[in-house]
Amino acid sequence: MTMANASHTDNATLGIALIVVAMLAISINDMLIKQLAGGYPLHEIIFARATIGLILCLILVAFDGGLSILRTDKPFLHALRGMLIVIANMTYFLAIAAIPLADATALFFVAPLFITLLSIPILGEKVGGRRLVAVVIGFAGVLVMLQPGSSMMSDANIMVALLPVVAALAYALTQILTRKLGISTKSSALAVYIQLAFVAVSSAFWIACGDGRFAEGTANPSIEFLFRAWRWPAPQDLWLLGLLGVVSAVISYTLSAAYKSANAATIAPFEYVELPMAIFWGWLFWGEFPGPMTGAGIALIAGSGIYVFLREKQRKRPLAVKRPTRRW
Fold first, then answer.
1. Contact between 49 and 251 (Cβ < 8 Å)
2. Distance CA 31, CA 229 (A)
3. ∠ CA(279), CA(323), CA(246), 5° rounding?
């Protein structure tokens, strides 16, 4: 399948710079959420982050053409994509409450492998033997990380450990949807749609379970994180929540702008700079550092994912249209 990119200005240098900034912002976002996970429910953190991010994104909209750019003839498509993004985010954040940050980040990076597999039945694409081998190697990396005795399994049960993989699948479905239907929306408008989806879902969680009754008696850190009662933020945490909102707006805009500036297959491999960043934050704040087997699994997942991206570039068939959306 080929993509029409005639109207797309391919500025590789700008695209790479933007994607590196986005990955730094994402790693800071994940670190802040893990820091706050012990005292607040996930939906409260998401609500605070998205509300602040929405305000900032609306300011960007004002400079990008005004509120008229928010009009769309595909509201259902945007709503569906928004829900998939919310699912990818929330399952991933539930994971980092219970397992090392680097492990969760690495497991999420099986997303390109899911995209490759899903493109066969959904898009009718042909996937060659070398890319299929890369997919198998990547999923073998997941098994290496999840094997009994690894840091992953000692810190969380198998269901929690698989949450980043669920997040990756939700993200892959979002990418396939984007690739199949195409999106012609400005970066700032797309960022607003994403933030609105987060506000809507987090508000619904507050209405349904904001009193914390569903968290009573549970010893599972992910379930407790999801259903813990809302509480007013402590003064020392207010600035963290505010920073989350700013970071969220930066992520939403720079990701979309990066893929608008350059071909997806050119800049997507640079998303893997998030992995060493996640390892750094995990070591700095929680003393987490991947063991030998976990490191081997990370290498297999990252190596196979990068190969798939480079193979797509060689075949001149980008993994998604110029404005994909990730789990944030």
1. no
2. 22
3. 55
Write down the residue that tokens 């963290």 correspond to.
240
Helices 12-36 & 274-286, crossing angle to 10 degrees?
A: 30
State the SS3 of 69-88: HHCCCCHHHHHHHHHHHHHH
- Owner of token pair 């003064």: 235
Does residue 324 lie within any of the structural domains? no
Asked if residue 79 belongs to a domain, the reply is yes
Distances (CA, A) of 9 to 5, 87, 254, 263, 266: 8, 32, 16, 9, 13
| Token duo for residue 79 | 């709503």
pTM, two decimals, is: 0.85
CA-CA distance, 93 to 85, in Å (whole number)? 12
pLDDT digits over 239-292, tens only? 999 999 899 888 878 887 887 787 777 788 888 999 999 999 999 999 999 888
Tokens of 300: 């297999």
* Nearest Cα to Cα of residue 36 among 284, 234, 298: 234
Q: How far apart are CA 118 and CA 134, in angstroms?
A: 15
What are the φ and ψ backbone dihedral angles of 231, each rounded to 5 degrees?
-150, 155
Read out DSSP for 137-173? HHHHHHHHHHSTTSHHHHHS-HHHHTHHHHHHHHHHH
The per-residue pLDDT for range 67-79, each reduced to its tens digit, is 888 888 878 888 8
Q: Does residue 136 form part of some domain?
A: yes
Residues 6+ apart with CB under 8 A from 115: 172, 175, 176, 319, 320
Using pLDDT thresholds of 50, 70 and 90, give the confidence band for residue 2: very low
Total domains, the chain? 1
**Structural domain range at position 51:** 12-314
In a domain, 1, yes or no: no
Show the tokens assigned to 10.
């391919």
3-state helix, strand, coil in the chain (%, to 5): 75, 0, 25
Left if phi > 0, otherwise alpha if psi is -120 to 50, otherwise beta: which for 232? beta
